[in-house]
Specification:
Layout: E1 12-16, H1 22-35, E2 40-44, H2 53-59, E3 65-69, H3 84-104, E4 109-113, H4 115-120, H5 126-135, E5 141-145, H6 151-156, E6 159-162
The protein binds adenosine-5'-triphosphate and magnesium ion.
C-alpha cells in the first residue's frame, strides 16, 4: 500500500477521557494537516470566556485555519452565570455553524471542540450530532473532543483515544498555567 493509504476518505476522530490533552491533540492534528495544504476549522462548543493562548497563535495560520468561538463558558460549574437555555442556544448555533462549514466545502478537517461535553450535559441532542456525522461528505474529517463521549459516537468513529489521567498538577492544588493549560 502506498504511504498515503488507498482511500481519500476522511476520518471521524474522538478524543475523550478524564486526562488532559484532548483539545491540544486536536490542534496537533490541525498543525499536521495544514502542513500538507489542508484547511482546518475549529468550532468551540463550550468554552468562550477564557483567553486561550491558541486564540493568538491560530490567527497566524489564517486562512488555512479558522477558529470560531461559539460556546458560553463552563456549564454549571466555576463561574457559570448563564441560564441553561443560553448554553443550549449557543451550542445549537455552534452546530449550525459546523453544518454551514461542511456544506460550503472549504474545509478538510473540522474540530468540534468540547462537543462531547455538550451532548453529555444535554445542551445538544445526540441525534443532531449523529446526523452531521452521517451526512458529511466522506472526504471531510471530523474531530470531536471532550470527556464522556457517547457510545453511539464512539461506535461510529474510526479513531478513538481516551486520555486517562495518571497525574494532574491540579490535584496538588496547582492552578491552571499560562501556556500549558490555557
Ligand atoms: P487541553 O486543552 O489542555 O488539551 P483537554 O482538552 O483535555 O485539555 P478539557 O476537559 O477541555 O481538557 O479542560 C480544559 C482545561 O482543564 C485545561 O486547562 C486542562 O489542563 C484542564 N484539565 C484537563 N484535564 C484535567 C484534569 N483531569 N484535572 C484538572 N484539570 C484538567
Ligand atoms: Mg478541551
Amino acid at each position: 500500500m502506498d504511504k498515503e493509504g488507498s482511500s481519500q476518505d476522511g476520518m471521524v476522530i474522538v478524543y475523550t477521557g478524564n486526562g488532559k490533552g484532548k483539545t491540544t491533540a486536536a490542534l496537533g492534528v490541525a498543525l499536521r494537516a495544514i502542513g500538507h495544504g489542508l484547511k482546518v476549522c475549529m468550532v468551540q462548543f463550550i468554552k468562550g470566556e477564557w483567553h486561550y493562548g491558541e486564540l493568538n497563535s491560530l490567527k497566524k495560520l489564517e486562512p488555512d485555519f479558522e477558529l470560531i468561538v461559539a460556546g458560553k463558558g463552563f456549564i454549571g460549574i466555576i463561574d457559570d452565570d448563564h441560564a441553561f437555555g443560553e448554553h443550549v442556544k449557543a451550542a445549537r448555533t455552534a452546530l449550525n455553524i459546523v453544518e454551514q462549514k461542511i456544506s460550503r466545502g472549504l474545509f478538510d478537517v473540522i474540530i468540534l471542540d468540547e462537543i462531547n461535553y455538550a451532548v453529555n450535559l444535554g445542551v445538544l441532542k445526540l441525534e443532531d450530532v449523529m446526523n452531521i456525522i452521517h451526512k458529511r461528505p466522506k472526504k471531510v474529517s471530523l474531530i470531536l473532543t471532550g470527556n464522556h463521549a457517547c457510545e453511539e459516537i464512539i461506535s461510529l468513529a474510526d479513531l478513538v483515544t481516551e486520555m486517562r489521567e495518571i497525574k494532574h498538577p491540579y490535584k496538588k492544588g496547582i492552578r491552571a498555567k499560562k501556556g500549558i493549560d490555557f
